[in-house]
Amino acid sequence: MSAQELSAVARTAYLIASARMVDSDRQAALVRDSPLSAVVPDTEEVRTLRQAQVERLQRLVEGLQQGKPHLAVGSRMERADTKDTLAVSVVGLRCRYVDDELLAALHGLRRKLAARLMEAGEGGGHRRPNIQVVMLGAGLDTRPWRLHLGHDISWFEVDLPDMAAFKRDSMERAGLAAEAPADCNADLLASGASAVNGQNPAVRAGFPLRVASWAAVAADLGEEGWVPQLEACGFDPGLPTIWVAEGLLYYLPQAAMDRLLHEVTTVTKQAGLGAAILTSPNPAAILASSMLREQSLAAAAAAGKPASSVWPSMTASLGFEPCMRLREAGWASSWSATFVDLELMYRTVIHNSTPRTPELEAIRQRAENHYGGMTSAYHVATATMGM
């Protein structure tokens, strides 16, 4: 399947991956993603997109060196010394934070499970995978090949059928193994050493799988019925699970997002132990995005371009207080960070995919005024249960 055959929503994952390659390829990168560079095909569209990203980054870098950066709207870095600050894209910064939250959640679950074993008087020894990670709307995510996650993990991805097929084809072309080697020695494979069975596809792959297992589920998360499909692929609702929805929720209708959150919470309660990492713009950001899209659609029509060339609408949100929403849903604890927070955390500045103009500022102001002056923001929220 080619990228041109993808649905509009699935195609956003392809375009986001293409843009994030620019961050990965830089000498100073928050996330080094060699598997992604292998997966994304070298097409004219990708080359054009990457060139535009490079030019925006260059303008920002020049601004940083002069102490006059072209910053994201509302950035606190406008009031900071930016000369030694790393320029990064929104998706690159989001990806790094989700990486860190995922690794922290895995560490927390392992400690909790180890404590349970100690209380039960059981030793260590070899055990089957006992932690699950489910990527909801995975797109071209490469974490099972990029991060040293551990072979106590069963990894699942859920995405639209066309996106799942496109990723499978891309994986085969790029050499991303769909199975872990028999000895599960990720460190040995990462070093480039050969295994005993040189004919094993998992061993021969350019990018070995760094978890115990990987499975893809082709399903529409906006509809009911995806949980049974997940279970049919080996998912065990009785095991601790980390759910990750990175850049997914806001493309769903609000009712579908509410249902998805309820389903994830209900499944997690069966094990009594788990975590969720979710990204969500607040309602003011959703409204501003909708206004900007209407403007972009009008410009595309005037230029004779198809509506499919404009980014899909963002429609759903966890609200202005995502932590409160998650606790109300049944999660024991939660915390969140905005992109403004992440800029400070990683000492970065975000370059905008859309140039900062008076028209864009006016749209943002109208959206915030609609909600009584509430600042538009994009949240990455983490919630835990039983930890």
Strand order in space, largest sheet: 4-3-2-5-6-9-7
Quantity of strands, as a count: 9
Mean pLDDT: 81
Strand content: 5-15%
**With helices defined by DSSP (H or I, 4 residues minimum), what is the helix count?**
14
Class based on secondary structure composition and strand pairing: alpha/beta
What percentage of residues falls in helices of 4 or more residues?
40-55%
Order of helices and strands: HHHEHEHEHHHEHEHEHHEHEHE
Structure write-up:
The protein is an alpha/beta fold and 387 residues long. It is built from 14 helices and nine strands. It has helices at 8-25, 34-39, 44-66, 90-120, 143-146, 161-174, 186-190, 201-204, 226-232, 254-271, 283-302, 322-329, 339-345, 358-370, and strands at residues 86-89, 131-136, 153-159, 213-218, 241-245, 274-281, 333-338, 348-351, 378-385. It has a seven-stranded mixed sheet with strand order 4-3-2-5-6-9-7, with helices on both faces. Helix 10 links the parallel strand 5 and strand 6. Helix 1 (8-25) crosses helix 3 (44-66) and helix 11 packs across helix 14 (358-370). The two termini are 42 Å apart. The relative contact order is 0.15. Residues 70-84 and 184-204 have low confidence and may be disordered.
